[in-house]
């Protein structure tokens, strides 16, 4: 889609859009930042234990997939575009790394507090969580909810076994 078509669709003058976004790449970068900032809000520590923080994060992401599915459709499209656009790939990878580090830090803190076993691989679990959460937007809502609930059961089981 060309910039003038985007401007027409959103009901603004093409030159106004062009003033703020001189290229389509600049517009896509802004969309990437906007979407990832909105989703990053779900990765803010909420207080409570690391398992509680993780539970809140997962449920908030699940809620967003149900209430704002367009965010995840756009992220999927951005992922495809990132494969051929180095600038968008760099932005997307940076935001994804921030998310991964939130997960790793939360998991490591839970391990340190004895809530998960010491041999839990925080990096591998973070990647597994990311893979699941990225894919739930394409699952039927009931399937997405079941997948998140199963992930919670696994993590809470690890937590309970670690506390024995």
From TrEMBL:
Residues 1-39 form the HTH tetR-type domain. This is HTH tetR-type domain-containing protein. Residues 2-21 bind DNA. Gene3D superfamilies: Tetracycline Repressor, domain 2 (1.10.357.10). Keywords: DNA-binding, Repressor, Transcription, Transcription regulation. The keyword Transcription regulation applies. PROSITE patterns: HTH_TETR_2 (PS50977). Transmembrane segments: none annotated. InterPro entries: BetI_C, Homeodomain-like_sf, HTH-type_TetR-like_transc_reg, HTH_TetR, Tet_transcr_reg_TetR-rel_C_sf. GO terms for molecular function: DNA-binding transcription factor activity; transcription cis-regulatory region binding.
